[in-house]
Design goal:
Layout lengths: L4 H4 L5 H12 L5 E5 L30 E5 L4 H4 L3 E2 L14 E3 L26 E3 L9 E9 L8 E6 L5 E5 L9 E4 L6 H6 L6 H8 L5 E3 L8 E3 L1 E2 L6 E3 L7 E6 L11 E5 L5 E5 L3 E4 L15 H6 L55 E3 L7 H7 L1
Antiparallel strand pairs: 1-2, 2-3, 4-5, 6-7, 6-9, 7-8, 10-17, 11-14, 11-17, 12-13, 14-15, 15-16, 16-18
Length: 381
């Protein structure tokens, strides 16, 4: 016969009191650090020994990065994985640069009230941060703090203009910390920088004193091979490419400014998808990679965190009725010998092309590879 569990335990002795006292003296740890495979950096920031134009400090974050794990006190934290961002601001945002997100964009509906994006709705209350993607204000700006933005995957930085004290939000580059100094050169080369070069613009010296992490420059002033983010498409617009966490573009080629050729007006960049695209040489770009590059390795741990983010469940088509989806209905798990299609009957797999061949994108030099994973399978083999 099974005995009660209490009877199977050993009686308490005097040494147990000492052990229990030692246990309570130590602080309880609910989180731990889990090492992950290292990521090799592909870019090194140009440095200069000039004190007047010194680059931002290089911080050795280590070749390995780690994810924060938690003791499985509850099922929801057993598989929870989070990037370690202890440098983020713990308080509230700078309220004059925010506004409440109410009504617009919630529930995946457009201005007419129709659902244009499915599986959206609910979620926690948010305030939208007004981020300056153009960065047209010249002069030095000091980074006050690095903040988390619930509306994007990358982090943002609150900066203050030294001349006027005006504050603004910008996308934070990887490695940027409070106390750093960033500057925008979209309005032109400052006079003190021009005087330090002897009154003559030397492209090499100019790049060595301006192409630093977090600085915003026209693409014509950025050397070839530099990693940039928040890339614009034209002269009068702000950044539109490479704005999410860990993204960047590479400057591939630049036209000869002394040439009268039409192609001399553009700079070719390579996106992470492999697409080569030409943009205006006067378009803006920020040197560096967008912060929070480990965002893709996070694990939410439970379905409730997905709902907090405003994402609703996705129901499979074969689980619906025939009136709701082309794959619905029937007995058992059958989709009626129909190729995979969307709820509106458009093929969703097998490389079905939806773009108009007669209206190609003239800004794309080389399209990104579309081979349904054949390149990945070839690399594994």
């Amino acid at each position: 016969m099974l005995q009660p569990r209490l009877l199977l335990r050993k009686p308490w002795t005097s040494c147990n009191c000492i052990v229990s006292t030692l246990i309570f003296r130590h602080a309880r740890a609910y989180a731990s650090v889990e090492p992950v495979e290292p990521i090799v950096a592909e870019h090194s920031v140009l440095q200069s020994t000039t004190l007047a134009f010194a680059p931002p400090p290089t911080r050795d974050e280590g070749s390995k990065f780690a994810m924060r794990t938690y003791k499985p006190r509850t099922p929801g934290v057993r598989h929870l994985r989070r990037p370690i961002n202890d440098h983020l601001w713990k308080g509230r945002p700078f309220l004059p640069l925010t506004f409440a997100k109410k009504g617009h964009g919630k529930g995946g509906r457009n201005h007419t009230g129709r659902v244009t994006v499915r599986h959206r709705g609910g979620g926690h209350k948010r305030r939208i941060r007004t981020v300056d993607f153009s960065r047209t204000t010249p002069g030095k700006h000091t980074v006050d703090r690095i903040e988390h933005d619930p509306g994007r995957s990358g982090h943002i930085a609150l900066i203050t203009e030294e001349a006027t004290g005006r504050k603004s939000y910008i996308l934070a580059s990887e490695g940027m910390r409070a106390g750093d100094t960033v500057q925008s050169y979209r309005a032109g080369i400052p006079q003190d920088l021009l005087d330090s070069m002897g009154g003559v613009v030397d492209p090499g010296i100019l790049a060595a004193k301006t192409a630093w992490r977090g600085n915003c420059l026209p693409l014509r002033m950025i050397p070839i091979g530099t990693l940039v983010h928040n890339v614009g498409s034209s002269k009068d617009r702000g950044g539109v490419f490479c704005r999410s966490a860990g993204t960047y573009a590479t400057v591939i080629s630049k036209g000869d400014e002394s040439s009268t050729d039409k192609e001399a007006k553009y700079v070719t960049i390579r996106l992470q998808s492999g697409e080569l695209r030409k943009v205006s040489k006067d378009a803006c770009a920020t040197v560096g990679v967008v912060s929070n590059p480990h965002h893709q390795h996070r694990q939410l741990g439970k379905a409730g965190r997905k709902r907090w983010l405003g994402i609703r469940p996705t129901v499979r088509g074969v689980a619906m009725n025939a009136v709701d989806h082309p794959h619905g209905g029937g007995r058992g798990k059958s989709k009626g010998n129909v190729h995979p299609v969307s709820p509106w009957g458009i093929p969703t797999k097998s490389g079905y092309r939806t773009r108009n061949k007669r209206n190609p994108n003239k800004w794309v030099v080389v399209e990104r590879p579309r081979n349904q994973g054949k390149r990945k399978r070839a690399q594994k083999g």
